[in-house]
Amino acid sequence: MNEKSLPMAGMHQVTELLKVKVFQLNEYDAVAAFSLEEAKEWYEKHTGLSTDEAFYDYKAHEISGGDKIYENERMEEMVSVNEIVESYWQGSPFIAITSNC
Predict the structure, then answer these.
(1) Which DSSP symbol is given to 91?
(2) pLDDT for 2 beyond 80
(3) What are phi and psi of 14, to 5 degrees?
């Protein structure tokens, strides 16, 4: 976890962050959530896509928190998946990584 965020966060928030995972749901999007089922359900509601449209024949999987991705399309700096969750988690699922810009 990002050390500078720990003193500012309450114990409940830190404990909750440790339970959040990021799931690659299709070739374009990865969602932060507590479980794969929650990620898929949220994604369908958020995008309005059907199960077949959203996930087709893609095998969803968890992404390691230590994996690094480019922070933006300029590809200048890399950020870890954990840093994304720490920065943007607000208690509910969100698209943590997208390549469909």
Answers:
(1) S
(2) no
(3) -65, -45
- Reading phi first (left if > 0) and then psi (alpha if -120 to 50, else beta), residue 63 is in beta
At position 36, the amino acid (one-letter code) is L
Tokens describing residue 72:
């933006």
Q: Name the residue with tokens 């480019």.
A: 70
The gap from C-alpha 56 to its chain's centroid, in whole angstroms, comes to 20
Distance (Å, rounded) from C-alpha 29 to C-alpha 16?
Answer: 22
For the chain, the average pLDDT equals 87
Burial of 66 (0-12, 13-18, 19+ CB in 10 A): exposed
Instruction: Provide the token pair at 37.
Output: 């089922």
CA torsion angle 6 10 11 14 (round to 10): -50
CB 20 within 8 Å of CB 9: no
pLDDT band at 99 (very low <50, low <70, confident <90, very high): confident
